[in-house]
Amino acid sequence: MRHGTIRLLLLAGVLTTAGASAQDMPDIGFQSIGRGRPLAVSVNTQPPVGPAWKGNAFVLPQPGVKQELDGYPASAPPKGVMPLPIDIFTSKDFYKDQALWTDKRYYRCNSPMASEVQRGILSPNPLNTGKDEDAPWGHCDRDLPREAIVSPYGFKTAQEHYEALLAETKKRGGPSTYTFQDFPAAEWNGVYENPARAPQNQMNWYWGANTQIATVVSLLTPKYQRRAVQEAYHQMRGHAIWPSTFCWPEGFVRRWYPFSVWEHYIVATPKLVEIREAAEVATSLVQQLHLFSQKRLKRTDVVDVCETIGQMEAVLRRMLRPEVRLTVTSMITGPAHVHLAHGSLEQIVMNLVVNARDAMPHGGQIHLTIDRSAISGAENGGRDFVTVRVADTGVGMTPQVRARAFEPYFTTKAVGKGMGLGLATVHGIVTDAGGLIDVMTEAGRGTTVSVHLSRALPQT
After folding, report:
1. How many other CB atoms sit within 10 Å of the CB of residue 294?
2. Last residue of a domain, one of 204, 238, 255
3. pLDDT at 6
4. Same domain for 247 and 289?
């Protein structure tokens, strides 16, 4: 398969995962070895584990209104349940309690979601405002079965699963390759509604409301058992600032958390498929982590910048709010070829446009320009460059922020609104390709990011 195309089996795998929000698997028309299996249990039929405040648990009660607990106070555990002599709320060293980590009583039968509400990490209406030992119990007789959580296919690794799907696809005449002209998933692009606000509440098991913490821990390897218990401990004892603080970013990748399926964008092109959360907390997280923290692939394609961005334009517009306007201008007549790794130009442009959008909370203008430039200097060897310039009319940066703009995980966005990977990712891609990047900005006067990519000589 040539670079610049996408295997339909992979695309279908991504959208099958997204479609699982409805707890109904799509009918793919045949019995597959590794996708489309009906769900064992739908969380829509299961009561939450708790504990939680009845009613709207995420809104502070009116003064004088007594809240009713869906669960059990510390002084009156569930009937028939014998509390442990020590649990996560009373332990002085939870590492020494490893033999208890898969006992639901160790967490007082709390769900992962409840662990974030105990001390108000997830909600402004905490379950416990007293001592740690005052933490309430959830329902010990509620839980999702193992088969409703783990993969039903029996593969030992993701690679084994992928290879089986690829073999199945080849047997059926695939994988197919597509261009923008015949791409069957173009209509998937767009913003998808918060599942909890959809006509049918589309909660997933990985919201963590219907599962015991102990059940989740029992399914993990020892390394991730430790991380999961670390996370639960710090959240339920009130040491965390926001969910997963003490296990971030690795902890974040495996969130059992509502915002994992909040409003989100799906961006699907023949070269790139991304599911982007509207809050941007998980935007391309795994992909971007690999881009700057692992050895990058040196294999490159010859990419026509003008053609690729022209094909992306409709997708980019769908990522913007109505009050944000985008203009795309090419100052180049004909092709503008550069050497870049597969999918990298799309990653550069999407990150820059998303950053520009987020810098204009009240709306504004994004100008995306393609041009040629010659940059002097001995280190550049008189090379010719193709320049991709993204300018916005947003809030701009102070000199202090500008100095740290390319640092991984540095962000000025509010908690939960960004990971600080966008410009770091762009910088990594561009420098790996032998290109240059510069930022012109002023607080209150917008930002212009210019990416200079070495022009590839015409192929003869």
Report:
1. 8
2. 255
3. 37
4. no
* Contacts of 59 by beta carbon, 8 Å cutoff, 6+ apart: 124, 125
Please write the tens of the pLDDT for every residue from 43-86.
778 899 999 999 876 677 778 888 899 999 999 999 999 999 99
435 in the same domain as 363: yes
Residue 101's Cβ-side half-sphere holds a number of Cα atoms within 13 Å equal to: 25
- Which value, to the nearest 10 degrees, does the dihedral of the CA atoms of residues 395, 396, 401, 407 take? 100
Domain end: 255, 290, 322, which one? 255
User: Does some domain include residue 154?
Assistant: no
Look at residues 239, 211, 233, 311 and name the one whose alpha carbon lies nearest to residue 268: 311
The total of structural domains in the chain comes to 2
Q: Could you give the percent of the chain with pLDDT greater than 90?
A: 38
What tokens does 399 get? 């000199």
308 shares its domain with 230:
no
3-state DSSP assignment of residue 66? coil
Same domain, 293 and 418: yes
324-330 and 364-374: which strand pairing? parallel
- Three-state DSSP state, 439: strand
Cis peptide before 175 (omega within 30 of 0): yes
User: Rounded to two decimals, what is the model's pTM?
Assistant: 0.58
Q: 438 with 453: CB under 8 angstroms?
A: no
pLDDT, tens digit, 9 for 90 and up, residues 199-236: 555 556 567 889 999 999 999 889 889 988 998 998 89
C-beta neighbour count of 297 within 10 angstroms: 12
> What mean pLDDT do residues 10-33 have?
56
Token code pair at residue 237: 């004892």
Mean pLDDT of the chain: 79
374 three-class SS: strand
